[in-house]
Amino acid sequence: MQLSERLTAGATQLGLTLTAAQHAQLLQFLALLAQWNQTYNLTAVRDPLEMVARHLLDSLAIAPYLSGDVVLDLGTGAGLPGLPLAIIEPQRQFVLLDSNSKKIRFVRQAVLELALPNVTPVQTRIETYRTTQPFTTIVSRAVAYTEVIGVLRSGLLAPAGRLLLMKGRMDTLPNRQAWPPFHIHQLQIPFLDAARHIIEISFDA
């Protein structure tokens, strides 16, 4: 199965309908990631076909859980999940934050080449980032909850906002008794034989 076919089949299994332009942008992002990965080691996944499941479909699977108009992707790395989500959710604004300069350089280049006006890359450390506009959703694919919870106290999350933590196996959660109430959603990622979950924490107004 070729990249285009796998993306189409995977999106269909996720219940997503991609426009031709979105489909092309997602594949363009994948090609750019594979190209940069040869020099900058942005991701451990090298096979573009495997990237469809592990990066594109894994990111797109959380689209139904987004809330509101402004989304913060904490520890975005190579733009995941923020860039794929921004491609299929053009009505939302995304801030992609990471402290790694080479990864943010890639994200900036991807935003430029993909012509994504709804994405703002930011290079800074999580604990020092501040904004005048709180986010309705904060998502993180790579940052531990213990790091994120301190950020929440700084006012980054809007009232009634939603925190989405993307996880693999759910055998253990450190300091679970200290967490606010949360829901765990099990995800089925097409073409990916690995456990994937979302920890959703909603904060009342």
UniProtKB/TrEMBL annotation:
Belongs to the methyltransferase superfamily. RNA methyltransferase RsmG family. One of its GO terms (cellular component) is cytosol. Pfam families: GidB. S-adenosyl-L-methionine binds at residues 75, 80, 126-127, 141. Its EC number is 2.1.1.170. It is found in: Cytoplasm. This is Ribosomal RNA small subunit methyltransferase G. InterPro entries: rRNA_ssu_MeTfrase_G, SAM-dependent_MTases_sf. HAMAP family: 16SrRNA_methyltr_G. GO terms for molecular function: rRNA (guanine-N7-)-methyltransferase activity. Keywords: Cytoplasm, Methyltransferase, rRNA processing, S-adenosyl-L-methionine, Transferase. The keyword Methyltransferase applies. It comes from Chromatium okenii. Specifically methylates the N7 position of guanine in position 527 of 16S rRNA. The lineage of its organism: Bacteria, Pseudomonadati, Pseudomonadota, Gammaproteobacteria, Chromatiales.
